[in-house]
Amino acid sequence: MTTAADEAGEALARLVAVVDQLLAEEGGCAWNRAQDHRSLVTYLVEEASELVEALEDGTPADVREELGDVLYQVVLHAAVAARSQGSGGATTLAAVVDEVREKTVRRHPHVFGDARAASLDDIVDVWSAAKALEKASRQSAYDGVARTMPALARAQKLATRRRGLRHGAPEEPAGAVVRPAASPPGVLSTAADEREWGRLLLAEIDAVEGRGFDVERALRSAVREREAELRAGERTRADARGRGEQQA
User: Fold this and answer.
1) By C-alpha distance, which of 132, 128, 126 is closest to 110?
2) Does domain 4-98 bear CATH number 1.10.287.1080?
3) Which residue has the higher pLDDT, 20 or 178?
4) Where exactly are the structural domains of the chain?
């Protein structure tokens, strides 16, 4: 009996064959052969943005199409990587699929292992602990937050990482507190839900647009400043722990 996995595998194989033909030296597409990871980034960003729009506002057909476009980008990037590394290249589509499968299994030990999670909070804790083991070589909790993210999304990601450091702690760790804002939390913090908060934020942007502010650049600068302060707090705490261990 043919399973959904079988059908997906066969369909993916057909797509891989199409991409291989596009990149073939004979009978292929010169434009595709001329591309590399950097030149394709613009298209990946565009397709990802269109997928987000389809997921939020599109029809099932829109979602299917945009998922396909993003999948094509993944297959194309894997083929470009394998082609640039030669036949013995480590970055093949099979390697990409296997690596994400193995990572998914590792990060869900409550499903594929012996861990137990009785609530959604427990699941998040289990997942976070599994990820922390993988990223043990990182020097900072803020490593891995892509600098190319939009400023607002990056600000939230840093805030999430910071909240994770404080999870379960009775108070803010020494050195982790960033300088307070010039003014106390305003009307934005009183929003009842996401939509209202978005409208209030949009009103703030409207209010400063006429003053010549570039809101993305302004927030990006503030996010860089906050990240520097958070990382400095980490170093301060690490130095304090080191001195304490030496004195023990």
Assistant:
1) 126
2) yes
3) 20
4) 4-98, 146-247
